[in-house]
Please model this.
Amino acid sequence: MRLKFLFVLFATLLIIQLVPSGARASTAKYSYIGNNFTTIEFTPGIFTADDRVTASFTVDCTTAHAAGDCRNLPYRNYYSTGAVQPDSVDFSAGPARLPTADGSVDVNRFSFSTDSNGQIIDWDMDLTWLDADGFINVDTDNFLDSAAALGGGAVVRGRPGTWNAAIRTKSPRSIPTTPLAVLVS
Model:
């Protein structure tokens, strides 16, 4: 009877280790390159028509979705859920850069959804900071990219930029030999 119990226990542990986990624990690093600004506003010379919004951030797919997968994410604010790694956020346009050099930023909106390949297809992200030097803003969504800093502003409407994703999936877990060795001996 004891031998049968050990055999069943051994077989169960082996099956648990060999069956792949349903979760695809991974991270996705997203980067965005907007189109050049078409409208320069307020103080001249702060922004130019060569400036554009660029952005990057990393998502912990396990936090974003129970399956640990960044594919087919519904439209949601993933910054407020903790899925976006705060220290990975980098948004800029001309002289506007957020977070600031000391890490300061207010995240007003950080919503997006992804398709079956994990690519961002719908988004609205708005970051700001107000300090002694003035107001800084970098904003991007499906229709408009804009920025403001040092009394200047710039916009491009109706020409969304391009998102790219680099998704890293953790390798499958290996079979531990320690618990199995204890059962066999």
